[in-house]
Amino acid sequence: MKTAIYPGSFDPVTNGHLDVIGRALKLFDKVIVSVADNPAKTALFSIAERQEMIRQSCADLPGVEVDTFAGLMVEHARANGAVAIIRGLRAISDFEFEFQMALMNRNMAPDINTVFLMPHDQYTHLNSSIIREIASFGKDVSKFVPPIVSQYLRDKFGHG
Ligand code: ADP
Question: What residues make up the domain containing 89?
Fold first, then answer.
């Protein structure tokens, strides 16, 4: 039974994240999608809302669990018996930060490997902050996010 952890802000979860989760499920028996509780970042959605959107978007994906963590991600990974940390790589611009983080994490937990997965080309331009911005203007983002997320965004911005 191999478990991987997929940490991130997921503010909110997008089709790009879901693509990565689908790929991770082909490699691991269990994928724990874990929402980072990072007080240094201001988020649009609460941790509970972000978890609920992931839970509903992954309802038909056996093997996915949803969690949250505060503090060191590698400790959370270890506490859950994860052998790998999943991160998505969209473009070279992601690389530098991801590389640094992977090396730091490996330093702290040499037994846990970071696995980088590339989404399908159609998702390489997608990120949560662009989605938040477009939705804040009342524009339709249903091509980019699961239906539950479109609904949450409409409710949040009062464009119901
Ligand atoms: P973080 O704040 O940790 O970067 P995100 O929710 O933005 O959290 O992203 C979590 C992970 O998912 C990161 O590894 C990020 O590179 C990856 N990711 C985000 N959007 C996409 C996408 N469209 N395709 C593939 N991976 C993505």
Answer: 3-125
